[in-house]
Amino acid sequence: MDAPLAERMRPQTLAEVVGQSTLLAPGAALRVAYERGRPYPTVLFGPPGSGKTTLARLLAGASRSRFVALSALTSGVRELKALEEDGRAARDQGQGLVAFIDEIHRYSRAQQDALLRPLEEGVVILIGATTENPAFALSSALLSRLRLHALEPLAPEALTALLTRALAAPAGLAGRYTCAPEALALVVELADGDARRALSLLELAAELAAEAQGTHLDQARVERAAGTRYRQFDKGGDLLYDQISALHKAVRGSSPDAALYWLVRLLDGGCDPRYVARRLVRAASEDIGNADPRALQVALDAWTAFERLGSPEGELALAQAAIYLAAAPKSNAVYRALAEARRDVASHGTLPVPAHLRNAPTALARALGHARDYRYPHDEPEAYAAGVSYFPDGMTAARYYRPTDRGLEARIAERLARLRARD
């Protein structure tokens, strides 16, 4: 049985690689390593189908070293110790050993630590591949011994070139099929930057044509081959955090249209709508605050509405909240005030509560001076006891909350300024 088209079309030289033009430009580190046949310990970070395995195999082949491929899903400390022994044996024979470890982020800390000594001594040249951000997925000790290269999803023109080559190549479909331009464009769209998915979809469309004793690939066959459309998403990985960050930044940047786009991207990818609701509530306090206190209630109401209605009806409430928050006046004064107050609490320690602010529920407490000289603000003009400090004795009164001149905070700022002028 033939290997899958994606495997048959795997590039045999760096010249055959499509995409990653910046990473593989003349003079770039990876290209120089390939041309000199001297790969170095590295981790390739990128989405599925971006070429991580291909680059690892090409680098290993260029070095004429022994090549070992492992998967972090099926290997552990025992295999890594054997890898170290193989590396020492290869060095004794005047060879190098290049080890490609796929899904390296799935190794535990103990398994990652097993790689440190062979890397330190140079008996193994490790090339790891991961779809997860190495800064989060790999230990700092392992990262310090590796060079990081980030791969991007393949651009539409790169995928088009790859598919065109596959249609004509002897190792591919060998010119047996024609493909309508709109069908080719649909394959590119459905692949969503993933070369493996693009080639698999093209191969399945060709198989459907062959079953019908045809040789032409049109949109209908591509649609049948694709089945249900889906886009790249990882419910627990970087794509989730990147997209929720984009939603939050669009809200903060007062762009309701972009906020709605990222909201739909998250929901379309399978993100838990409750996670989105939590982030909207956070944005309401962090980026709007008292410039529009209604924003927090709108976000909470949207969360409640979703809990009661579920999907898809409840998603409309989330969209309403995202648009409202993006359009609302912005202030991070509350967020900054809380951070500054936390710093003071951490630096000043446990200062005692001043006597005039203490609770005095008993005769003993009153005899000890609790609440003595306390001025009840409601008995003062404008319900403000001018000149009174509510901070601990010996601590300079701090100014954490600095209202902006936007939304309701402009009026809050005016009132506070008028009251403070009486101190």
Description:
The chain has 423 residues and is of the alpha/beta class. Among the domains are: 20-150, 3-Layer(aba) Sandwich (Rossmann fold); 156-226, Orthogonal Bundle (Helicase, Ruva Protein, domain 3); 353-420, post-AAA+ oligomerization domain-like (Orthogonal Bundle), CATH 1.10.3710. It has helices at residues 5-8, 29-36, 52-63, 77-92, 109-113, 116-121, 134-137, 140-143, 156-168, 181-191, 195-211, 219-226, 238-252, 256-269, 273-288, 294-309, 315-327, 333-348, 363-367, 408-420; strands at 42-45, 66-71, 97-102, 125-130, 147-150, 178-179, 216-217. Strands 2-3-4-1-5 form a five-stranded parallel β-sheet. Strands 6-7 form a two-stranded parallel ribbon. Helix 9 (156-168) packs across helix 11 (195-211), helix 13 (238-252) packs parallel to helix 15 (273-288) and helix 14 packs antiparallel against helix 17. The longest helix is centred in the middle third of the chain and has 17 residues, at 195-211. The mean pLDDT is 91.
Radius of gyration: 31 Å
What would CATH call the class of the domain at 20-150? Alpha Beta
Counting DSSP H or I runs of 4 or more residues, the number of helices is 20
Beta content comes to 5-15%
* Fourth-tier CATH superfamily name of the domain at 20-150: P-loop containing nucleotide triphosphate hydrolases
Mean pLDDT: 91
